[in-house]
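Final report, section 2: Outcomes. Of the targets proposed, Glycosyltransferase family 2 protein is the one most frequently requested by collaborating groups, and we therefore present its record in full.
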Amino acid sequence: MDTLAIVILNYNGQSFLAKFLPTVIAHAEGHPIYVADSASTDGSVAFVRANFPAIRLIELPYNGGYAGGYNMALDHIRTHYGGATYYVLPNSDIEVTPGWISPVLSLLEVNPHIAACQPKILSYSERTMFEHAGAAGGFVDWLGYVFCRGRVFATFEADHGQYDNNRSIFWATGACLFIRSDLFHRVGGFDTSFFAHMEEIDLCWRLQRLGYEIWACGQSTVYHVGGGTLHKSNPHKTYLNYRNSLFMLYKNWPADGWLWGKLLLRLIMDGVSSLLFLKVGQWRDVLAIIRAHFAFYGQLPQLHKQRKLLLSQQKKAVSLYPKSIVWAYFVKGKKTFNAME
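The predicted structure is given below as tokens.
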């Protein structure tokens, strides 16, 4: 069994593979690299075979999104290659840096209670700024809204070393997720109904319910292009984010009797955000939010079964950020993570 498997999921990302695979190879620190291709149509498979013969190529039968694709790929690695103690899942549009692996592995190895961890995620185009997808570690507020050290809503901080410490967080980004393989498979991997977006937050929430911790490692840095597969302006991304946020909230919210009250508040606040989209003429995003809510209602029977199972398995209460980041950000004017602590 390998100590670490570097696993890159690819869907029509040949240009990113050409740009970033050489750097991953240069800084792999001796660990095997896999490219799991989700039935790409842009020649990615032939490109990897021709240009990177040392890469272990996995051809998936269809595009199952981030969640389904990684579940299939990691099951294949476990079955056909003997598995690995840890997985790291960098997006295809991630540029790694020298020494990006060792600090995270050291943190995982010294503390067996850490299930998953992430490096600092900086912007590839603005290299001193934190990037949207995870920044320096994520959190969830009492209404299920997510935010990060280094990024709250549309405010991005410059990296001045303010988040260089190693610390526990609520969720580690799927843009470059390190995770213990035994725990990944033990909890069933990602929830494939999410397809893409927020599946890593759902996974981190489930791992914490079993008593494990999620951390950020400030001594490791990577750079992320962002939106490589699905651009942030795409209404389908809006749909997935709103729908999956509701999926995650319903499945994982503590059994405190406030679930439906929280969902009602979310419905109202999502309606307000729809009006903001409408104000700037983004009516397709408004339709995406409406579709997201109806998809959530249609999935409620299955979500309820998942919720009951998770509650029956829970070993530890999970603490969320106890206030509203919407109130803190838009009303009180607190724009950074440190201002909210």
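The chain has two domains: 2-224, 235-340.
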